[in-house]
Amino acid sequence: xxxxxxxxxxxxxxxxxxxxxxxxxxxxxxxxxxxxxxxxxxxxxxxxxxxxxxxxxxxxxxxxxxxxxxxxxxxxxxxxxxxxxxxxxxxxxxxxxxxxxxxxxxxxxxxxxxxxxxxxxxxxxxxxxxxxxxxxxxxxxxxxxxxxxxxxxxxxxxxxxxxxxxxxxxxxxxxxxxxxxxxxxxxxxxxxxxxxxxxxxxxxxxxxxxxxxxxxxxxxxxxxxxxxxxxxxxxxxxxxxxxxxxxxxxxxxxxxxxxxxxxxxxxxxxxxxxxxxxxxxxxxxxxxxxxxxxxxxxxxxxxxxxxxxxxxxxxxxxxxxxxxxxxxxxxxxxxxxxxxxxxxxxxxxxxxxxxxxxxxxxxxxx
Length: 366
What we know:
- It is a single chain.
- By secondary structure, the chain is of the alpha+beta class.
- It is built from 13 helices and twelve strands.
- The strands form two sheets. Strands 1, 3, 4, 5, 6, 7, 8, 9, 11 and 12 form a ten-stranded mixed β-sheet that branches.
- Helix 2 runs antiparallel to helix 12.
- The relative contact order is 0.19.
- The model has no long low-confidence stretch (mean pLDDT 81).
């Protein structure tokens, strides 16, 4: 009887039911997509840094964990000093330049020989390595996003580059150009943003790290494992607050919509509540029916929200292939729990109000 009553109530006002379901769906989708976008970007960035194969990363003093915003304040001659350290096998300087012209791009200026010594070299899907001063390497994701192929000319930083190779993604950046050319373009002569070090053996990483800290006091020296462990939302200033704010906004949307839906439902069904009470329904039955109806609305909304999340993710990836949105079962469950809790809270007052209605007054309600 209870389930039949709930389903008939939902079908009786199909448009209101649809709007309530979609509101909860938007709540769930907002939580899943916001967390998925931030987690995806951090995870994908960490994988690309790990894919370089370096053991240690040297950055300027007080540097951010985001390498792409490192700038270029370090003299290139530091690399020669680092190469002299015991247990250091190879040192690769890199100049990182951030560009927003025609999209968001990060260009890495590298010396092909030293970068190959540290990373083991690129995996070429087409073309060849950097040879000329105007050559550019593009990873497969960026090539798809920018619709470029080997032999094309690509303008970036007001400079025409010739795409000489398409490489497999996962080596730190998506766009690589010769170090010397990028230094000239951004007026960073003999400067580097970061230094990547490869030790003779992984177990020597700690010894080399300590020696570097004594050699370059004040500079940021991080073993790669430590660097990767920092790539979480809690270590990015303001990101955790942003995520919490978006979740709070999503919860507020769902709670208010459920509250309004169930409040108007109780008002419209005052006579029905009177009939139920006259037939012997107690307060618990009335409260349970209102809360269960809210829960059913929420469950449909959760299913809609998961579908919206995957649809939006697919649409974004179709338009921006380099974007990474990580949708995980764990956060789907959390978003569902948040939505269900909000729905129950939003329906609590209308349910309490319905249970307190006098049967005689309810039956006489017009």
